[in-house]
Amino acid sequence: MSSRRRSSMFNRWKQQNRNEQFEGITEEEMIEYKEAFHLFDKDGNGSISSKELGVAMRSLGQNPTEQELLDMVNEVDIDGSGTIDFPEFCQMMKRMSKENDSEMIREAFRVFDRDGNGYITAEEFRYFMTHMGEQFSDQEVDEIMAEVDIDGDGQINYEEFVKMMTA
């Protein structure tokens, strides 16, 4: 196979991969990501080095080590350039957003699980549903509990809670 053909195949693969990097990102998120990218890209060369990433993170109150910064860059550096270009930055931001969503769900679970035993009992669920936010009748709480409690053990475990929150 000629080097020109290999190069053409690689470029086609790279373009397809870049299109997948933007999948699932809304227009609003894209605008926010572009603004953030330009703030991080201090020298305006179209990519973010580990040094630029470090400056940005320190300005946000973080204090990553040089190795942590290199690891962060390498984690999303698909093209092996040693820097983060815009499509790679979008991937990183999308991943961080999912991690934040996951942390919010975890924190909500802790709020429901008043005794901290790792399960939301019917009583804990009833308390939260009748005292916080909207008022639900006992019957409505029982119906929701029955729907969420997939394994039927009378309590909601973390996996069941995640399914409820993401449905």
TrEMBL record:
InterPro entries: CALM/Myosin/TropC-like (IPR050230), EF-hand-dom_pair (IPR011992), EF_Hand_1_Ca_BS (IPR018247), EF_hand_dom (IPR002048). Gene3D superfamilies: EF-hand. It comes from the Eukaryota. Keywords: Calcium, Metal-binding, Repeat. Residues 28-63, 64-99, 100-135, 136-167 form the EF-hand domain. The keyword Repeat applies. One of its GO terms (molecular function) is calcium ion binding. Pfam families: EF-hand_7. This is Calmodulin. One of its GO terms (cellular component) is myosin II complex.
